[in-house]
């Protein structure tokens, strides 16, 4: 089943416009499939697709000159000829940044489209590619993409968040609430990795196991050469049990029995290989923002569930609140590049997310996945303290859909259908 990602058109529009295109994201998230689709769209153009992490290629192509020889002898390429070159898992190339820079500078007829599964290595290439690249983050299926696979017809529907049109959102939820609740429960449980979504129920856990094993074997052991894989695995599992919570590095160090320096190294690897992401606290003082403890979220709740429980058949009621918070985080990250933080005071008042549209416009978002919800005191105080900046405060609920006293109460299952701007 062919699924066109929502980013396909945006990426396609940049091909051939004088930039190296880099698609980055975790392994098995669909980068290769997306690149193949982009290649197929270039009808009547000369294209070459090279999987860079195959042993033959690793041994054959180490420099840009090696690449030219390979293209000439294997693909009948002639220097000066226009070519659309797809390099899958390009981060395994020695000095990948310099490698791509040389191609870019030497021959403007070669248009490079690359994919990589290690932000750590991709970041190293950036110093050579300043002004030469466009980076696209490819994540597991968003809830909208998941719904498209499930043949939910109105998956492309979008509503603006305005008081005068909120009745349209209410009508939409009234019509589709049961279907969306069912799909969201499945999405929270099994996640959005493309092959996991597309496989029948009895095969999903095997695919998730393969994703985890491939990640540990290829990225962690072989590529990044982490020696203490047991401690690394223990850290992942511990963090999986703490989604939506603040990360206390001293506590992690004591629990796992490794130094804080090693904890920092492993956290950087987990973030750099797109397994999880950190959210910093909201402060007007930037120094405090950088030094205070961040919150942790997994890029895929299904993978998180598999790490903790293996093949789970249903959601643990006690965890639904934190899973929905993780879901909301991922949906907000899919929506835009806007800054996303959380609010936490010394007195432990907290707001789950602060969504910054710009310096002067912020949306406070609190997740209350339950049947009865009122405006939390922390939200009231935040709105009062930042009244010149706050727009459209949101409470994410289970099934309450209303607009009341300037605040939007929105069911989690329809967040994907709402534009925040």
Overview of this protein structure:
It is built from 17 helices and 15 strands. The two termini are 33 Å apart. The chain has 421 residues and is α/β, with parallel strands linked by helices. It is 44% helix and 17% strand. The chain is globular, with a radius of gyration of 23 Å. It folds into 2 domains: 6-137, P-loop containing nucleotide triphosphate hydrolases (Rossmann fold), CATH 3.40.50.300; 144-419, no CATH class. The protein has a 6-stranded mixed beta sheet, with helices on both faces. The chain has a 5-stranded parallel beta sheet with strand order 2-3-4-1-5, with helices on both faces. Helix 10 crosses helix 15 and helix 12 (249-256) packs across helix 13 (260-272). The model has no long low-confidence stretch (mean pLDDT 91).
Can you tag this structure with a few keywords?
alpha/beta, 17 helices, five-stranded parallel beta sheet, 421 residues, 2 domains, Rossmann fold, six-stranded mixed beta sheet
- What is the rounded distance between the termini? 33 Å
| Shape by Cα distribution | globular
| Radius of gyration over C-alpha positions, nearest whole angstrom | 23 Å
User: Spatial order of the strands in the main sheet?
Assistant: 9-10-11-12-14-13
- Integer count of domains: 2
> Based on DSSP secondary structure assignment, what is the total number of beta strands?
15
- Estimated structural class: alpha/beta
Low-confidence stretches: none
Mean pLDDT: 91
Helical content band = 40-55%
Largest sheet: 6 strands, mixed
How many DSSP helices?
Answer: 17
What percentage of the residues does DSSP assign to strands (E)? 15-25%
């Amino acid at each position: 089943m062919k699924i066109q990602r929502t980013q396909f058109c945006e990426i396609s529009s940049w091909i051939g416009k004088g930039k190296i295109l880099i698609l980055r994201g975790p392994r098995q998230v669909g980068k290769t499939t997306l690149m193949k689709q982009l290649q197929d769209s270039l009808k009547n153009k000369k294209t070459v697709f090279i999987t860079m992490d195959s042993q033959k290629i690793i041994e054959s192509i180490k420099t840009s000159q090696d690449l030219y020889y390979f293209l000439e002898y294997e693909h009948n390429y002639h220097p000066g000829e226009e070519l659309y070159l797809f390099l899958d898992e390009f981060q395994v190339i020695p000095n990948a940044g310099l490698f791509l820079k040389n191609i870019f500078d030497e021959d403007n007829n070669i248009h490079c489209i690359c994919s990589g599964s290690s932000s750590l290595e991709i970041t190293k290439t950036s110093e050579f590619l300043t002004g030469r690249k466009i980076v696209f983050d490819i994540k597991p299926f968003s809830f909208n993409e998941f719904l498209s696979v499930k043949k939910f017809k109105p998956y492309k529907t979008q509503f603006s968040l305005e008081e005068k049109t909120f009745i349209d959102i209410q009508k939409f939820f009234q019509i589709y609430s049961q279907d969306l609740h069912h799909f969201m429960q499945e999405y929270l449980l099994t996640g959005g990795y493309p092959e996991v979504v597309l496989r029948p129920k009895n095969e999903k856990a095997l695919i998730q196991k393969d994703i985890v094993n491939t990640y540990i074997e290829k990225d962690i052991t072989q590529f990044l050469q982490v020696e203490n894989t047991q401690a690394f695995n223990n850290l992942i599992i511990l963090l999986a049990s703490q989604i939506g919570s603040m990360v206390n590095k001293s506590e992690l160090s004591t629990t796992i029995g490794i130094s804080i320096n090693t904890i920092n190294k492993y956290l950087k690897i987990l973030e750099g290989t797109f397994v999880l992401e950190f959210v910093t606290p909201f402060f007007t003082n930037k120094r405090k923002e950088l030094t205070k403890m961040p919150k942790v979220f997994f890029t895929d709740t299904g993978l998180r569930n598999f790490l903790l429980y293996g093949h789970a058949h249903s959601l643990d009621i006690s965890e639904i609140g934190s899973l929905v918070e993780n879901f909301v985080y991922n949906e907000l990250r899919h929506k835009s590049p806007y800054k996303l933080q959380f609010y936490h005071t010394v007195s432990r008042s907290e707001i789950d997310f602060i969504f910054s549209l710009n310096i002067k416009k912020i949306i406070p978002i609190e997740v209350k996945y339950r049947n009865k919800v009122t405006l939390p005191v922390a939200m009231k105080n935040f709105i009062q303290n930042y009244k010149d900046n706050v727009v459209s405060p949101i409470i994410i609920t289970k099934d309450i859909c209303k607009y009341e006293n300037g605040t939007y109460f929105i069911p989690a299952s329809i967040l994907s259908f709402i534009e925040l701007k």
